[in-house]
Amino acid sequence: MNVRRLIPTAALAGAVALGATALTACSGATAAGGSGDGRLAVTASFYPMQFLAEQIGKDHVKVGTLTKPGVEPHDLEITPKQTAQLGESDVVLYLKSLQPAVDEAVAQSGVKNVVDAAALTPLEVHDASGHDHAGEDHDHAAEGDGHDHGGAGRDPHVWLDPVKYAQVAKGVGAALEKADPDHAADYRKNTDELVAKLTALDTEFKTGLRATASKTFITTHSAFGYLAERYGLDQEGISGVDPESEPSPARMKELQAVAKKDNVSTVFFETLASDKTATTLAKDTGLRTDVLDPLEGITDKSQGADYFEVMRSNLNNLQKALGAK
Q1: pTM score, two decimals?
Q2: 32: nearest Cα among 98, 113, 105
Q3: Burial class of residue 112, CB neighbours in 10 A (0-12, 13-18, 19+)
Q4: Which among 12, 7, 19, 11 is positioned nearest to 171, based on CA atoms?
């Protein structure tokens, strides 16, 4: 697997500024024809977008996804069949710059109703330790083939912060309303229900992580910058390396020092990549390993069947690792 790349997005609009998504309304009769059964045909780029479409669209939509369960979304390559699927969609939901192959396919698809999640909530720049550098000038693209969380790119992992994910959900709901106005009231109701659930999840995280023995967690994939920032934690990622490769001796030494200084007990790994890095680091530092799932896909190895179940597993694992009181 190639080292992942974090590619910066363009300047971002406000929380639910749909103008930047180039969203064009069409009539309910026309919009709902793409699925062949009267439902709105929605294509989602990967699981977090698929989940929103299913939760908000429910019986009015037929949702397909470009990233199959178990496929690491950053590495996705689009097949001719998927290109055709995109072109037949009434609505496409994606997160620009997370998956370059998807960006190119969407641009060529000719679909009128295209929703870019990166335009629905501000993206920030996080370094390997999860710190926010949103106020700094990071307009230049990060070069190279690495999915570089430590570089100049803005972090796309907004769905791991329930508050930001709720902002995206509102934008998706508004998009479905415009694409299928005949069912606008249902989309609005479903959006409100989903946002309420995400607000409750945010409260669970705030309460569950308010009092902990440590605020620092170590993870092989620096995907949790927004989550760490939201709940007052410090993420220490193994920057610039593939999750399946061993950390450099210098980074290992640095993390050993961090673990000792900040009372770290656990090294987290993820479900869609090997635990080799975490196991190696844990062995050399005398720490435990556990799962912190970036929720880029759901498989039979996931600690839950959907977004909410996996997020609650993440919360439980963080509470154990950080010594929640």
Answers
A1: 0.83
A2: 113
A3: middle
A4: 19
